[in-house]
């Protein structure tokens, strides 16, 4: 490519740094100094020796001459040596520019560019590709715009690689509007151009806009699909991520390691165990299951799908484990009601010389909370700072408030909140509110709700809990007041919903749902189960229906809870002996807790329900969490 010469008058001069010169160790020419000189002074000494000994100047390593003098006042001296060597000057300086751009000091590439312009060195497309790389590493939008100007003036605007690099630079520098503007003006685009826009929009959380680009792509590669799948997972749209993955498979595209990890995360979010197992098998065939990151993702997926044994198998078979592996497993045991096992695993971790982190202690404090171990929890909380110098985060304070609140120590919980060194958030006050409901403390609940309405006024869950506290106390006027407050603030109650994955398809049920295609069969099977349950002493606990309605209506309301419908559907569709796994968006109510224990005994089937706070494993009429609260 032909070169161009520019003036440097429009280019700002980057900050310069002093370089330390080293004196040559010998006045005689030898190979050690010839290839290791580190300063212009040493270079000049060697050059003098070359002249004295009548040695050919071609012996000088030209690339080293360029790199040593590039950012110094001796640039013209190096330039003269390069020109006399009859080697292409632009290629030599581009090599130096590339090295600077890929180094830990990419700013040096911009400083060298100033020198190239100042001393009339011809520039080509490679020059600008390395410059854009340096600017991207630095997220330098200002220099990027200047370099963009050079590219336009020199006629390189038709170079697709440079155009893509400019789009990428604008996007990573926070100038997404400029990136979109340049994208729209490009006369030619390839799959890389589209992928850059999708990836950067996803990173900025603009998933809908990213999907707009994805939908318009004339052709897509694996990276296009992977970026979009990751975007849906990161923004809390796991169903869309799985649907997209299914479409990708229909296109006969082979997913890579990154794709599969992203889909596993989506499976974990909605409990799509069948697909998760399928991906696990695919990873085994591809030999990826020795990868620590993939193993950690698999552990997380199996835990969130309620397959604790599968998670433990992967954990135990890992040759090497990171703190992420240990913490995930400890957390998994804790939320599955196996606190003692969580503590044992923690002891093994300490014996293995693995230092715990903040996530480890969140798992341990969860275990204490669900087991009512206040003293143990307090010891662990103090140990974080004292023994491991871990500064407690808001999550740790939330766990401690939850621990006190579950144990009925509401005054202690409130005092703990008041003495927190950081401002308590909605989760912290919400934990206290939850304790107030269980222990029927209206006064403390009203204190908590005052803060919650300031911190998180659109969270329907807090209004519902307060309304339920009033309803249990038969204070219907206060119930009406809370519901009016919800209407005035535009807050709607989230309907209870449950999902179950069967043969790779996720079926969702909403409380009172009668729209399912197999509703008649579901209701018939549920009626049969209900008759057997009543023979064994089941009586619907209408006290959990905190509505001022007739008793018969309360019973009908209870029997239509989404988790019950999902479990009945699972019993209809899954083979004998297969565990039923249900994901619930809200907390399982006391009546469902009793009912599911009884159903597990009647059908001799393990039923696992993941609600918003923990796992409930119902087996032989018993729940893993020992008690409802």
From TrEMBL:
Keywords: Repeat. The keyword Repeat applies. It holds the Pfam family PPR_2. Gene3D superfamilies: Tetratricopeptide repeat domain (1.25.40.10). Residues 1-25 are annotated as: Disordered. GO terms for molecular function: RNA binding; zinc ion binding. Residues 537-629 form the DYW domain. GO terms for biological process: RNA modification. PPR repeats lie at residues 190-224, 291-321, 322-356. NCBIfam families: PPR. PANTHER family: PENTATRICOPEPTIDE REPEAT-CONTAINING PROTEIN. Belongs to the PPR family. PCMP-H subfamily. This is DYW domain-containing protein. It comes from Lactuca virosa. The lineage of its organism: Eukaryota, Viridiplantae, Streptophyta, Embryophyta, Tracheophyta.
């Amino acid at each position: 490519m032909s070169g161009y010469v520019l003036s440097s008058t429009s280019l700002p001069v980057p900050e310069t740094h002093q370089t330390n010169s080293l004196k040559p160790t010998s006045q005689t020419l030898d190979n050690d100094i010839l290839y290791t000189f580190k300063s212009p002074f040493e270079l000049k000494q060697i050059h003098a020796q070359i002249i004295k000994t009548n040695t050919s100047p071609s012996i000088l390593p030209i690339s080293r001459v360029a790199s040593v003098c590039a950012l110094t006042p001796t640039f013209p001296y190096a330039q003269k040596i390069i020109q006399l060597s009859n080697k292409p000057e632009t290629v030599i300086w581009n090599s130096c520019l590339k090295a600077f751009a890929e180094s830990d000091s990419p700013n040096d590439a911009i400083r060298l560019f100033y020198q190239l312009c100042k001393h009339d060195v011809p520039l080509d497309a490679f020059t600008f590709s390395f410059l854009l790389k340096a600017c991207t590493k630095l997220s330098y939008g200002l220099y990027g715009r200047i370099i963009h100007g050079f590219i336009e003036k020199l006629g390189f605007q038709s170079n697709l690689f440079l155009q893509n690099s400019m789009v990428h630079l604008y996007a990573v520098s926070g100038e997404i509007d400029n990136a979109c503007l340049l994208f729209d003006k490009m006369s030619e685009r390839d799959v890389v151009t589209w992928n850059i826009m999708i990836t950067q929009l996803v990173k900025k959380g603009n998933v809908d806009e990213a999907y707009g680009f994805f939908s318009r792509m004339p052709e897509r590669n694996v990276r296009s699909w992977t970026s979009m799948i990751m975007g849906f997972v990161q923004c809390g749209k796991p169903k869309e991520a799985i649907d997209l993955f299914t479409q990708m498979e229909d296109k006969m595209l082979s997913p890579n390691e990154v794709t599969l990890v992203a889909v596993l995360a989506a499976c974990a979010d909605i409990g799509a165990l069948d697909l998760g197992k399928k991906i696990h098998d695919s990873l085994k065939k591809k030999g990826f299951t020795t990868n620590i990151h993939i193993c950690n993702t698999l552990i997380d997926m199996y835990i969130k799908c309620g397959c604790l044994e599968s998670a433990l198998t992967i954990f135990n078979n890992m040759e090497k484990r990171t703190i992420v592996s240990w913490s995930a497993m400890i957390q998994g045991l804790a939320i599955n009601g196996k606190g003692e096992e969580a503590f044992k695993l923690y002891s093994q971790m300490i014996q293995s010389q693995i230092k715990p982190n903040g996530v480890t202690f969140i798992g341990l404090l969860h275990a204490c909370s669900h087991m009512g171990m206040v003293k143990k929890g307090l010891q662990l909380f103090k140990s974080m700072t004292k023994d491991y110098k871990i500064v407690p985060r808001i999550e740790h304070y939330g766990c401690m408030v939850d621990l006190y609140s579950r144990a009925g120590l509401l005054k202690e919980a409130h005092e703990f909140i008041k003495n927190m060194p950081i401002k308590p958030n909605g989760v912290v006050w919400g934990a206290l509110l939850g304790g107030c409901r269980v222990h029927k403390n209206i006064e403390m609940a009203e204190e908590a709700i005052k803060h919650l309405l300031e911190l998180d006024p659109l969270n329907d869950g807090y209004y519902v809990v307060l309304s339920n506290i009033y309803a249990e106390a038969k204070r219907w006027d206060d119930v009406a007041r809370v519901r009016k407050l919800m209407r005035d603030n535009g807050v709607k109650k989230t309907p209870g919903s449950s999902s179950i994955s069967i043969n790779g398809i996720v079926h969702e049920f909403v409380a009172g749902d009668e729209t399912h295609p197999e509703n008649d069969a579901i209701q018939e099977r549920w009626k049969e189960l209900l008759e057997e349950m009543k023979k064994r002493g089941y009586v619907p606990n209408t006290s959990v229906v905190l509505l001022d309605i007739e008793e018969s209506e309360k019973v009908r309301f209870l029997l239509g809870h989404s988790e019950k419908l999902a479990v009945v559907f699972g019993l209809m569709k899954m083979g004998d002996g297969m565990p039923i796994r249900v994901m619930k968006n809200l907390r399982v109510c006391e009546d469902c807790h009793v009912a599911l224990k009884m159903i597990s005994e009647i059908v001799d089937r393990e039923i696992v329900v993941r609600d918003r706070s923990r796992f409930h494993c119902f087996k032989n009429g018993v729940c893993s969490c020992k008690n409802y609260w």
